[in-house]
UniProtKB/TrEMBL annotation:
The keyword Hydrolase applies. InterPro entries: Metalloenz_LuxS/M16, Pept_M16_Zn_BS, Peptidase_M16_C, Peptidase_M16C_assoc, PreP_C. Belongs to the peptidase M16 family. PreP subfamily. SUPFAM superfamilies: LuxS/MPP-like metallohydrolase. Its cofactor is Zn(2+). Its main location: mitochondrion. It is found in: Mitochondrion intermembrane space; Mitochondrion matrix. This is Presequence protease, mitochondrial. The lineage of its organism: Eukaryota, Fungi, Fungi incertae sedis, Zoopagomycota, Kickxellomycotina.
Length: 997
């Protein structure tokens, strides 16, 4: 086995004979393969001779190998056929005829990534793993799934849509529509931002494939039939339509053989092309209705954007130039559009589709606002036009341009943990549209070429003239908020159901009832998954990865954790400031404080100038609130602020100076900018609830159980959403400025700080010097003490059970149940972790996703937080799901755990433990939480030892006992109208402080 070794930064030949006769290299301009020195890789582009299947292989010394197979799947309607096919393909294949092999493989593998998605024009099935045997196993399962799926009608009904009675056992109860994709898309469409972006795009591309929703529009999904699904697969999932991607240090030869075999029965066919002809319509204005947002004032609920047709995606250099142009135009406080639209407070933030969209064959750029009053739209439009005109005359400040280009180069030098997958993402869209994917890998060439084009003058001015001053295809899209919107959706859904049912005879309805019972029976059936390949515990390394660190001191007394390794010429800095004094009243201000540090500007300079310096010299500076629980005591937490940055080694001194400038000199009196920031944060955070409601529900449930979760709820939970929306309503922000100054005093303190630096051997001294300099000038409050009492007092905390419901204007719900257990070092901690891994695939997935029709659900155990939790995601029946959580406990207590179930649960745990880290994250578990390599190794060994009876013991002790019930809370976030029959037992928490909305 020859692994493309890197020597002196140059990749050697992978092997002379990697190309089997059935695959040939694609020659373009004489280039068979390309060595990309700065990325330390060698790329090969191949074509399957008989079928025309394309393959991109990237040889690189990286054990996190990645693979993907994908097909062109542009839709011609909004039934979501491509998306439902993506799901159904993973429900069993000829060689692996088990239900849901994809989810089954999650626990038989140590994959670092497994997923599938449907983009506008293509569907992809990627995975990554560090284990060679696992790679072969997964490749086999993916290839069989793609080319020989069973696509049974029952799978289509489970994953796509089906008519089903509300109470499936009762033949008189009313009909509804169920299905995994149906619910997933209902959830996606209830997110006001993504609804806006989708509808605007549909209006922008009439008559093309992009006028349809590739994921499926809930009102059209029920038009799709099983026959249409099967036919779509036949026509599209064909090697002639396929793109295969592989990455890493495994040899290519055996992979070529495996794929060759998997497509042996296929002949060549005409590949699908993306029908794409935009007929310019000049200026078009469209107004539609959408939902009301429950934060923000009632008279500022409109969203609007202006979209412009830009370049052909296949012009790679122009696409790159456009993405830089878009960043300079829109992002950051010094961007002209930001100054024209956001600083004016006309809206609460950019509209969800704002930005350059290189995801369609003909690309586009949109600019708009959400949270704007109708009467201001015209003014905003005028400002947008004026801003384009100004950029068309003046271009951008040269220093900002240089900062943007430096950012691109730094991003590629940074060694990310999922490099293989991120490369795949960056080439995919172009590749599916016929661009040579290797073109995208020449990042330095692209930057150099762009720089010289800019040097020769008027590059950005040219872009404005080409696409924006007299656009032949421009859409002004407005979405007005209609309080009755949600109700109308319900009514429309009911009408749809009535029409469907009315069109069916009694016989047919009986047939559907029968099919539903069959589906339920099949879902409940225990099946033999022996056909699927699996890793065993003997494939797991006994020793985990170690990341050696050395401890040092800077500025006389501040602890420094040094990690010296190969960093590609980058230095990483991380600082934690522990807040030991009690300031519970200041705590909710922490998120705003952290954002304010990189938004308000300092006493000396405005943010625009600082931002440019940050871009020129670093990969960004970020601050965030920090909470962690004592490894031996759930009642003790450490709380404060964590911040960091990274930079090329030649900019070390500047990086430390910039960090210090923000820490010392941020101008919290800048209430004008503060107002804009509060408004943007409040809107973003509310939108986040629609997106990750399960995480909010978990925090809400956990908040009554441990001090860390109480703090997390206050910082990142529903309480924080409420807090921010309260601030957004304040007329006078001066008191808030004063609070932020108080936080600054309390948080930044030389006596309570610790730092970590990851760097190359050669840059230690430079970092030490810069760090000493920063600490010498770091604040040390005159009245500071080192009293041992955390910001949120843990000692007085008493855990108590609670049931909380948070109503929101969503058409979907999230449920969570949380249980306080034991700290990290307790012997039961590893057992609980294995238990969570066993419950998810063997019980919860089936019950919550397949039976209740939620998009997802499961159990997770956070060892560091000592919290065991159950959750559901986009769930039509959260109360049934909560009952399921309890049933899961009964199930495990009465279930005979098999050897395989236990081993699979442990494999999943090891898969998590061995997730590759980016350079920046190595050694961070020790720095942030005190978890050393030795502790991790000891814990690793304990996982091997966990027995079946251990799992029953901990289930009984922590989840089932009467004592356990006192430490168990539940939370539901979701539909206002949700039928809470036992409402008296629930505490209602509203997201808004005022009842005016
Ligand atoms: Zn999906």
């Amino acid at each position: 086995m020859h692994r493309g070794a890197i020597q002196g930064g140059r990749m050697l030949h992978v092997t002379g004979s990697i190309v089997r006769p059935s695959f040939s290299r694609i020659s373009q301009r004489g280039v068979l393969s390309k060595t990309v020195g700065e990325l330390k890789l060698r790329a090969f582009r191949l074509k399957h001779q008989r079928t025309g299947a394309e393959w991109l292989h990237i040889a690189r010394e990286d054990s996190n190998n990645a693979f993907s197979i994908g097909f062109t799947t542009s839709p011609s309607d909004s039934t979501g056929v491509a998306h439902i096919l993506e799901h159904t393909t993973l429900c069993g294949s000829v060689r692996y005829p088990v239900r849901d092999p994809f989810f089954k493989m999650l626990s038989r593998s140590m994959s670092t990534y497994m997923n599938a998605w449907t983009a506008h024009d293509y569907t992809q099935y990627p995975f990554a793993t560090q284990n060679a045997k696992d790679y072969e196993n997964l490749q086999g399962v993916y290839l069989d799934a793609a080319f020989r799926p069973l696509l049974r009608e029952a799978d289509f009904r489970q994953e796509g849509w089906r008519l089903e009675r509300g109470d499936s056992g009762d033949s008189t109860s009313s009909w509804g529509i169920k299905g995994v994709v149906y619910n997933e898309m209902k959830g996606a469409f209830s997110d006001a931002g993504s609804l806006f972006a989708t509808r605007a795009e549909q209006q922008f591309f009439p008559g093309t494939t992009y006028a349809h929703v590739s994921g499926g529009d809930p009102q059209f999904i029920p038009d799709l039939t099983h026959e249409q699904l099967v036919e779509f697969h036949r026509a599209r999932y064909h090697p002639s339509n396929a793109r295969v991607y592989s990455y890493g240090d495994l040899p290519l030869g055996p992979q070529l053989a495996r794929v060759d075999k998997a497509i042996a029965q296929f002949e060549r066919m005409q590949p699908a092309t993306v029908p794409m002809e935009v007929r310019p319509f000049g200026l078009r204005k469209v107004t539609e209705f959408g939902p009301v947002e429950s934060v923000g004032s009632p008279d500022k609920q409109t969203k609007f954007s202006v979209s412009y047709l830009t370049n052909d995606l296949r012009d790679v250099q122009e696409t790159f130039g456009m993405s830089i142009f878009s960043g300079l135009l829109l992002n950051g406080t010094s961007a002209p559009m930001h100054q024209a639209l956001i600083d004016s407070h006309m809206g609460s933030g950019y509209s969800a589709n704002t930005g350059y969209a290189p995801f369609t064959r003909q690309t586009s750029l949109a600019v708009g606002l959400q949270g704007i009053a109708d009467k201001d739209i015209e003014l905003a439009e005028k400002r947008i036009a004026e801003t384009f005109a100004r950029v068309g005359e003046e271009g951008f400040e040269r220093r900002r341009v240089d900062a943007a280009l430096a950012g691109v180069e730094l991003a590629y030098k940074h060694r990310a943990a999922d490099f293989g997958l991120s490369l795949m993402r960056s080439v995919s869209t172009g590749w599916f549209h016929g661009v040579d994917p290797i073109t995208y890998l020449r990042v330095s060439d692209a930057v150099a070429q762009l720089r010289s084009t800019i040097d020769s003058g008027k590059f950005f001015e040219g872009i404005v003239n080409r696409y924006f001053t007299q656009s032949p295809h421009q859409l002004r899209y407005v979405m007005l908020a209609d309080p009755a919107y949600g109700q109308q959706l319900d009514t429309r859904e009911n009408e749809l159901i009535q029409t469907k049912v009315a069109g069916l005879g009694r016989r047919e309805l009986e047939k559907i009832d029968a099919k539903n019972s069959e589906l339920a029976a099949e879902q409940a059936k225990k099946e033999d998954v022996g056909a699927l390949p699996t890793l065993t515990l003997s494939d797991v390394a006994e020793r985990g990865q170690r990341h050696a660190v050395d401890m040092g001191v800077a500025g006389d007394s501040v602890p420094v954790q040094w990690r010296t390794t190969t960093t590609n010429g980058i230095s990483y800095l991380r600082v934690i400031n522990d807040v030991r004094e009690k300031h519970p009243d200041l705590w909710p201000y922490m998120p705003l404080f952290c954002e304010a540090l990189t938004y308000l500007g300092t006493q000396k300079r405005d943010m625009a100038q600082i931002e440019t310096d940050i871009g020129l010299h670093t990969g960004g500076i970020s601050f965030s609130p920090f909470v962690t629980t004592d490894l031996g005591n759930l009642g003790h937490i450490e709380a404060g602020i964590s911040f960091g940055s990274h930079c090329l080694d030649q900019h070390i001194a500047s990086m430390y100076e910039l960090v210090l400038e923000l820490v010392r000199e941020t101008n919290f009196s800048n209430t004008g900018r503060l107002r804009a920031l509060v408004s943007v944060m409040s809107t973003n955070m509310f939108n986040e609830v629609a997106d990750s409601g399960h995480a909010f529900a978990r925090r809400l449930a956990g908040s009554t159980l441990t001090p860390e979760l109480q703090a997390s709820e206050s910082l990142r939970g529903i309480s924080q959403v409420r807090f921010l929306s309260g601030l957004a309503r304040l007329k006078d922000l001066e008191p808030v400025s004063e609070r932020l100054r108080q936080v600054q005093e309390v948080v930044f303190n030389r006596l309570t700080m610790r730092t970590a630096v990851t760097t190359n051997q050669g840059s230690i001294d430079t970092n030490q010097q810069a760090l000493d300099g920063m600490i010498a000038n770091y604040p040390q409050p005159s009245n500071s003490t080192t009293a041992e009492s955390p910001a949120v007092s843990g000692s007085k905390f008493t855990a108590e059970a609670a049931r909380v419901f948070c109503p929101l204007p969503f058409a979907t719900n999230y449920a969570a149940q949380a249980v306080r257990t034991v700290p990290y070092t307790h012997a039961d901690s590893v057992r609980l972790q294995v238990l969570a891994k066993l419950l998810t695939p063997n019980y919860l997935h089936r019950e919550i996703r397949e039976r209740n029709g939620a998009y997802g659900g499961g159990a997770v155990y956070s060892a560091a937080q000592g919290l065991f939790s159950f959750f559901s995601y986009r769930d039509p029946q959260p109360l049934a799901t909560i009952a399921t959580f309890d049933k899961a406990v009964d199930w495990i207590l009465n279930h005979t755990i098999s050897d395989r179930e236990l081993d699979e649960a442990k494999l999943s745990v090891f898969g998590d433990l061995d997730t590759p880290l980016s350079v920046a994250d190595e050694g961070m578990a020790y720095f942030t939480a005190g978890i050393s390599d030795d502790m991790r190794q000891e814990r690793r060994e304990q996982f091997f030892e966990v027995t079946k009876s251990d799992l029953k013991d901990v289930a009984n002790k922590y989840l089932a006992s009467d004592e356990a019930k006192k430490h168990t809370s539940v939370a539901v976030i979701g539909e206002e109208g949700l039928d809470m029959t036992e409402i008296s037992r629930w505490r209602i928490t509203n997201i808004c402080t005022s009842s005016s909305v």
